[in-house]
Design a protein that fits this description.
The protein contains 20 helices and 18 strands. It is an alpha/beta fold. Among the domains are: 92 residues, no CATH class; 210 residues, P-loop containing nucleotide triphosphate hydrolases (Rossmann fold); 91 residues. The longest helix is centred in the last third of the chain and has 52 residues. The chain is flat and about 130 Å long.
């Protein structure tokens, strides 16, 4: 499906890829991992043809259809959600036009025996079969509805202009288009960043049932495990290929590095002992033979080199303030509406000091609205919301990283907001977040998404707090950085409210889960396991089942048509093979008949002098002719049956 051969990308000051090669077969699902800035997104752009390598080549079959979802998209307006996604089926009308054009051409041709006319028939047959296959699914509108609902859209959203949706929702629109096109090779760069847990689970099931190849970049560990069985790691310009899922890769990677380290240390010990022996007895005649033997032995040693590993990682802890009251946040019979739209109503919960809780649910269900009420941005809600004694809030907004000034340097970004004694520790903080030295002089505009997320996190640490509210803090962070963040939150003695869709990140971290859905706030006291087991996913499953049931007959038609199309395709290939056999037989028969005629003329010539070898040659030619005639006859019968 895909072959990457001796790929090098050199940015002058930085060698991103150094002569790397790998291949991906059809239907193979590959996770592309590595820390932020390692080159994962660049590699997808190279495969998609958006960027060019310094050297090397990337190849795939001529008719390979690639679907590419980048992290950041240039979106266009002017259509509704449904109209935009419907573009995925433009190929159906294109196929119909091709079939009509070929039909007209056939009607105007009379050279039925010519090779070009036979090629025309082949093209017409292939295109008409493909068109019939695309039509046999019946109403493709149901496929659009199923995909949009799976990605979190309500049916009333279908006719809304795309311009009325946020960037995250518009990413879902583009993802729906790409999935519905069913590409041969799917390239997804951080598709879960703007998806809620329900949509992520739907996407996992979609990918699992997909027959195409996939290369996926994601920092959602559970999503990687559930979708990919092969992991390619990018580390300092090199690629390391593991034929396992992400969790198993982590284990094997540690084993590989440990084994390599032990082998290196043992070899270094052996080399030193050998060099010491040579040095000690170099000038002793009685040891001359042993010394020369050791020198030759040393020359033959293939030196083990340790793989270069980027071991940098964030290192920090949240600055605690003095303790708050026993219940920092208390919500009683609370409701919030925007005009006629009731976001949530009759919400009741209490968060105890030191608890770590998660707000989960689909985007737009009220999680961020509740957070903004707690922060004091909204006051026009019903019911009551009380903050406890001595509460000091610190808030990390969902778009925190995007709001950074791209024209400032990393250092200036922090320097401009730091006040008090913390200013003396700016360089130490930057170093702890991997922005030490020259990295601190980089402009924000050139930073990757993960680097921006790390920089935004520093600003959160500039003031002490006893209640942290983190809205999607893991977006764009690589898995190593997320693990450090998770550990820092676990060690924090204050209260934490997390808005996140990352199941692995939340698992084992939060004590309680509050699900925002259909205007209600539902409490799950057993953390993520309790939520995932007993949440209202079943409601959506029932709705989806109703859609699926209406399509059961059409799906069967698609399946039957697909089988029929494959049979027709195989039949045409077999017919062509038999025709070539007949053609070869006829050519060989003509040659043999000419040889036999020539030999018979020689044999019938007066005074002909013929030896035994001439008669043997003549008889062999006759036998060969009989054999070719039998083959021709069998092939002709087979062709008649195929036609």
């Amino acid at each position: 499906m895909l072959t990457v051969n001796k790929l090098t990308v050199d940015f002058g000051k930085r060698l991103l890829f150094d002569n790397v090669s790998f291949s991906v077969s059809a239907s193979e699902h590959v996770a592309l991992v590595g820390r932020n800035g390692a080159g994962k997104s660049t590699l997808l752009k190279l495969i998609a043809g958006i960027e060019e390598p310094t050297s090397g080549e990337i190849s795939f079959p001529k008719d390979c259809h690639i679907g590419y979802l980048p992290q950041v998209m240039k979106l266009k307006d002017g259509k509704t959600v449904y109209q935009e996604v419907e573009e995925a089926f433009e190929h159906i009308s294109d196929l119909e036009k091709e079939v009509e054009d070929l039909t007209r051409e056939m009607q105007n041709r009379t050279d039925y025996e010519s090779e070009s006319y036979q090629d025309l028939l082949e093209r017409f047959s292939a295109k008409s079969d493909a068109f019939m296959l695309s039509q046999s699914g019946g109403n493709y509108h149901a496929q659009i509805e199923k995909t949009l609902c799976g990605l979190g859209f309500d049916r009333e959203d279908f006719d809304k202009p795309t311009s009325t949706f946020s960037g995250g929702w518009r990413m879902r629109i583009e993802l729906a288009k790409i999935l519905l096109k069913r590409p041969d090779l799917l390239l997804l760069d951080e598709p879960t960043n703007h998806l809620d847990i329900e949509s992520i689970r739907w996407l996992e099931n979609f990918i699992a049932s997909s027959k195409g190849a996939l290369i996926l970049i994601s920092h959602d560990r559970q999503f990687l495990d559930n979708t990919c069985k092969r992991t390619i790691e990018i580390e300092l310009g090199n690629l390391y290929d593991y034929k396992v899922n992400y969790t198993r890769y982590v284990s094997l990677r540690e084993e590989r590095l440990e084994q390599q380290k032990r082998a290196f240390e043992n070899q270094q010990k052996m080399i030193k002992e050998t060099e010491d022996f040579i040095e000690r007895f170099r000038y002793k005649a009685t040891k001359a033979v042993q010394v020369q033997s050791r020198i030759k032995q040393l020359e033959k040693v293939q030196r083990i080199e340790l793989d270069e590993i980027d071991e940098r990682q964030m290192n920090f802890s949240f600055r605690p303030a003095s303790p708050s009251g026993e219940y920092p946040v208390v919500v009683e019979d609370m409701g919030k509406a925007f005009g006629d739209h009731q976001v949530f109503d009759h919400a009741n919960f209490m968060i105890k000091r030191g608890e770590k809780v998660a707000f989960v649910g689909r985007n737009g269900e009220g999680k961020t609205t509740m957070v903004r009420c707690i922060m004091g941005d909204y006051h026009d809600y019903t019911g009551t919301l009380k903050l406890g004694h001595n509460v000091e809030l610190s808030y990390f907004a969902q778009n925190e990283a995007q709001e950074l000034d791209p024209n400032l340097t990393v250092f200036d970004t922090i320097d401009r907001v730091a006040v008090g004694d913390i200013r003396t520790s700016i360089n130490d903080m930057l170093g702890a977040f991997m922005f030490g030295g020259e990295e601190s002089l980089k402009k924000v505009g050139v930073l990757s998404g993960g680097e921006r997320a790390r920089l935004a996190m520093i600003r959160l640490l500039l003031r002490p707090a006893n209640v942290l509210i983190l809205d999607e803090p893991t977006n764009h962070l690589d898995i190593r950085s997320k693990n450090v963040l998770k550990e820092a939150i676990m060690k924090f003695t204050g209260t934490v409210i997390l808005v996140s869709h990352d199941r692995y990140f939340l698992d084992g971290l939060v004590d309680k889960v509050y699900e925002f859905k259909h205007g209600k706030v539902i409490e799950y006291l057993g953390g993520m396991p309790d939520y995932l087991e007993h949440s209202t996913f079943s409601d959506d499953i029932a709705v989806q089942k109703a859609i699926d049931d209406t399509q059961e007959t059409d799906d069967k038609k698609v399946s039957e048509a697909a089988v029929d199309y494959e049979k027709q395709k195989q039949l045409r290939a077999l017919r062509k093979q038999v025709e070539r056999t007949i053609e070869k037989c006829e050519k060989r028969i003509k040659e043999l008949e000419s040889q036999i005629t020539s030999m018979e003329e020689d044999m019938n010539r007066p005074n002909a002098q013929l030896g035994e070898s001439d008669y043997i040659k003549y008889n062999k030619a006759k036998e060969a002719l009989d054999k070719e005639m039998n083959l021709w006859e069998e092939a002709s019968i087979e062709l008649e049956e195929l036609q």
